[in-house]
Structures are given as C-alpha cells and as structure tokens.
Amino acid sequence: MSDLAELRRKAAGCTACELYADATQTVFGSGPPGASMLLAGEQPGDREDIAGEPFVGPAGRVLDRALEQAGVARTDVYVTNVVKHFRFRREGREGKVRIHRTPGVEHVRACLPWLHAELAAVGPQLLVTLGATAAKALLGSSFRLTQHRGEVLAYAELPLVATIHPSAVLRGPKDRQAEMFDDLMADLQLAGRTVSGLSGAG
Ligand code: SF4
Q1: How many CB atoms lie within 10 A of CB 175?
Q2: Does residue 151 lie within any of the structural domains?
Q3: For residue 36, what is the domain's CATH number?
Q4: What is the pLDDT of residues 7-44, one digit of tens each?
Q5: Of 19, 47, 95, 97, whose CA is between 20 and 30 Å from 69?
Q6: Is 111 near ligand 1, meaning CB less than 6 Å away?
Q7: Å from CA of 175 to ligand 1 middle
Q8: Does 20 contact ligand 1 (Cβ within 6 A)?
Q9: CA–CA separation, 145 vs 162, rounded Å?
Q10: What is the pLDDT of residues 94-111, one digit of tens each?
C-alpha cells in the first residue's frame, strides 16, 4: 500500500478511533510523492476539517510564510498531521463554535499507522514535527520541545527537526509573536540546510 492516492482513499473510511464520528472528514496529507521534507503537525483545525486539506487555515498561512522566508519551496514539502480527524468541543449558541481539543495518546496511537504509510509512500529525506503533540508522537512522551527545538534529531533513521506549531505563533502573546515566528522560520531553514547537505553528500 504505497500509493498516496490509494492511501488517501482508504484513510477516508478509517474508523480506528472515535474521532471520525464527530468530524466532517479525514484530512489526509498533501504534497508530492518524493517531497524532500515531510512536515507533521498535530491534527486538522476547523478550516481544514471543512476543506479536507491540511494547513489551509490561519496556521497554514503562517507556515507558508515561514517556509517562504526560510527558502523552502512549498512544492517540495508534504504536509500532514499525526492525527487525521479534528478533535473539538462545542461552545456558543447552539454549540456552533468548535473549539480545538488536543488529541489523546489513544488517538495518536490509533492514527500513527497512517503517518508511517505516508512516510513509506513519500520517502522524504527529512521529517519536521510541528508542535509538541507531533514531536511526542514520534520521539516519546518524555520529549521536551523547549529543550530540543532547533536540533537535528532522528526518527527511523531519518533526520528530524522538531519545531513549534505555526498556530502557537498565532496564540502566543502579542509581544512574542515575531520572535516565535523567527524561531519557526530558523528551524525550517535548518531543515532546508540539512536536506541540502544530504543531497550534496549523495
Ligand atoms: S483520527 Fe486517525 S485513527 Fe482515528 S478515525 Fe481518524 S484517521 Fe482513523
């Protein structure tokens, strides 16, 4: 099962955890097979749940800007999430406002086979995790993003750079947002330099 289109089709019917029941649809990864980098975030947000595509909402725009400023071509990147259904709670009048809830370890565990399948199908040279949930999913629950952000680590013999989630930039205190964006951009630059180094060495 290595073809991305086939994987996407199969994931659309996934019921391996409870999250499929309330979400609109599976939000599978997006990008070309053979992309040099695979970026994995936590889970789709409200916009992504409706659109069925990852990183198309406000956080996606921050990511696009950071990739551009880091000199990483968006067309050479595959973006996905470690959990592929939106987890939320309802608030507001008639419960119309959907508020993000962090996925539990049981959801991450249930969904991880899809990420492994995407890794096999895309064959990236490097992984980037966006946010603590994605980093812990791959590097273990004791991983601390604050201690290891911006380092080149490893997962399944692939280099891995763990950075913050672009939504953290949007949620951060106003006086820290520029600094947080620069951190994200610098980590993506490091990822790009690492891929270039690997390509040069190959
Ligand atoms: S979150 Fe993942 S494991 Fe759970 S139903 Fe959706 S695709 Fe399947």
Answers
A1: 7
A2: yes
A3: 3.40.470.10
A4: 999 999 999 999 999 999 999 999 998 999 999 999 99
A5: 47
A6: yes
A7: 37
A8: yes
A9: 7
A10: 888 999 999 999 999 999
